[in-house]
Amino acid sequence: YGDHRDLHSFPTRRSSDLLTTQSTLPSSTFHNCLSLTSYSIPSTISIIGLTAFSTCTNLKSVIIPSSVTTITASAFEFCSGLTSISIPSSVTSIGYQAFNSCSSIKTITLPSSLTLIEAGTFINCTGLTNITIPSSIKRINNGAFNGCSSLKTVTIPLSVTKIESNVFNNCSGLSSIVALQATPISLSSQTGVFTNVDTNNCYLFVPLGSKTAYASASQWKAFTHIVEFDVSQLTGNTDLSLSTTAVTLKNNTASVHISSNTLWSASSNQSWLTINPSKGIVSDSLSFIATNNST
């Protein structure tokens, strides 16, 4: 250590230059880098390492190239400023708590290249309102959506055969769950799958002929409103129409047919008028009931 030359005089290489020669974004590469607001991952990267962006609280956007196949555990945890993220179809694995507490993300579409949603993947993503689960998913592990308090609706595709404990725990904002399985997924060996979900007001939509099975199945039976629907009418489109746009009440009641291939809800802004049902899926008939106005 006899060389006393100024260390700053040695040439350095930017981290982005170094990363273009690697296939793995190393663990904790940007961990707690508070100055990082956006980042485009080099197209040479196939694996995003453990906690690579963890606690980058000011990171708002990140571009994941189609070269990436693996997002490892906790890769983006506590990135509370991240508002959106696009996961390419090249990704086949997302690790434990990869997006833990990414509280500003509102919507996520998972690619059909995935077969598993790992434990705690989206735990405490409190801003998440919409999640698209592809029909390739076979298993949803422990607490995958635990604490997603703003999540409004979720569809469990037919491909899913296993749901572990606490998956929807503390999803207090859920207003509807669509289960496409004619036979309920067994939850008898799991705990707290729907803890703190308002099962008195959250509607559970199930295939025709399966209401009785769900009404007696462990944890599923907690839902007050279990509604059957014709799965064949459910499509990927969002089309909705009414048989009429004007409603005339006769004997304080009226009926309107709704044609739909997606989830819908109906409400009245008048205290004297109620609509039943207040939500549904695919086609149905709405009943409008008026009460006497005492004023």
Protein architecture, described:
The protein has 2 helices and 21 strands. The protein has helices at 15-19, 211-216; strands spanning 24-25, 38-40, 47-48, 61-63, 70-71, 93-94, 107-109, 116-117, 130-132, 139-140, 153-156, 162-163, 176-179, 203-207, 226-229, 240-242, 253-260, 263-265, 273-276, 279-281, 284-290.
Task: Chart the SSEs and their pairings.
Elements: H1 15-19, E1 24-25, E2 38-40, E3 47-48, E4 61-63, E5 70-71, E6 93-94, E7 107-109, E8 116-117, E9 130-132, E10 139-140, E11 153-156, E12 162-163, E13 176-179, E14 203-207, H2 211-216, E15 226-229, E16 240-242, E17 253-260, E18 263-265, E19 273-276, E20 279-281, E21 284-290
Parallel strand pairs: 1-3, 2-4, 3-5, 5-6, 7-9, 8-10, 10-12, 11-13, 13-14, 14-15
Antiparallel strand pairs: 16-17, 17-21, 18-20, 19-21
Shape: elongated
Which stretches of 5+ consecutive residues score pLDDT under 50? Answer: 1-15
Strand proportion: 15-25%
Largest sheet: 4 strands, parallel
**Main sheet: strand order:** 1-3-5-6
Decide which structural class fits the backbone.
Answer: mainly beta
The Rg value, from CA coordinates, equals 24 Å
Alpha-carbon distance between the two ends: 93 Å
Strands, count: 21
Mean pLDDT: 86
Helix content: under 10%
Order of helices and strands: HEEEEEEEEEEEEEEHEEEEEEE
Tally of alpha and pi helices: 2
